[in-house]
Amino acid sequence: MTKDELFMLEAIEEAKKAFEKGEIPVGCVIVKDGEIIAQSHNLKESTQNVLHHAEIIAINLACQNLNSWRLDDCDIYVTLEPCLMCIGAIASARFKRLIYGPRDKKYESLDSILKEYLKNFNHQVEVVSGVLEKESDELLKSFFKNLRQKDKI
């Protein structure tokens, strides 16, 4: 198992916590020097706060832990392709690498944002996609299947 897969497994564990809370199962871990320095999962429904995506919460924790907004020596692992808000935060925090599982078929915005809109940023984020894609995708599909079944009752 690769280093990226090991850290993605930790992000999947965070996604499972979100699943158990009735949140869309997205998890995130932030790694610096081979150590997890922050981790979180979606809490948007629980807190009724649109900003409480897994990535934003984890970025906030990492900034607090490092006492810096610059996370340029860090990698961020997310179980689903980040949304527009989270991509903005990831680029602004100057992450070294973004590693994620499946594409978000609803938005599929990452490539166009990073390659077109953020191409002139003074910092570029290396992107690795598809890490443990199947495992993350199965969790998401299971969540939405359960949600649809609840709606039928």
What does this structure look like?
The mean pLDDT is 91. The termini are far apart. The protein has 153 residues and is α/β, with parallel strands linked by helices. The chain contains six helices and five strands. The chain has a five-stranded mixed beta sheet with strand order 2-1-3-4-5. It is globular and about 50 Å long.
Let me know the number of strands: 5
Shape: globular
Identify the strand order in the major beta sheet.
Answer: 2-1-3-4-5
Q: For the record, give the distance between the C-alpha atoms at the N and C termini, rounded to a whole number.
A: 42 Å
Q: Please state roughly what percent of the residues sit in beta strands, choosing from under 5%, 5-15%, 15-25%, 25-35%, 35-45% or over 45%.
A: 15-25%
Oligomer: single chain
What integer is the average pLDDT?
A: 91
As residue ranges, the low-confidence spans are none
Order of helices and strands: HEEHHEHEHEH
- Tell me about the largest β-sheet: 5 strands, mixed
Structure classification: alpha/beta
- Bin the helical content: 40-55%
Number of helical regions: 6
Gyration radius, rounded: 15 Å
